[in-house]
Design goal:
Glutaredoxin, 4-stranded mixed sheet, 2 helices, 25% helix
């Protein structure tokens, strides 16, 4: 497998119901993960974009959280509808999606 141009890390942290930090799982990360994997397959970009499910990325109350490297851009409150925009604008277009970036005080 060639080295990917972009690496997408998607938080899949699940904590018990009522945990004070919450989790990306209770905020819909599974659907976001599925959409990233679906878009990767539909666009046939396996040689350019790697998608990895990960544990906690930090701001649990602002999840689902998605981290893109090599830029180190953290997106928060990502919805399924945002995945297409992240693909088109950032992953393939090279321009981060400013409206989805985590606030500077968080990341």
């Amino acid at each position: 497998m060639p080295k990917p141009e972009k690496h997408v890390f998607i938080c899949s942290q699940a904590r018990p119901a009522g945990h004070p930090r919450g989790s990306c799982a209770e905020r819909g990360c599974r659907e976001v993960q599925d959409e990233f994997l679906y878009q990767t397959q539909q666009r046939q970009v396996f040689d350019k974009i790697a998608v990895t499910l990960t544990g906690c990325l930090g701001p649990c109350g602002m999840g689902p959280n998605v981290l893109v490297y090599p830029e180190g851009i953290l997106y928060s409150n990502v919805k399924v509808a945002d995945v297409n925009t992240i693909f088109d604008q950032h992953l393939l277009g090279g321009q981060p999606v400013e409206s989805l970036k985590a606030p500077a005080e968080i990341w």
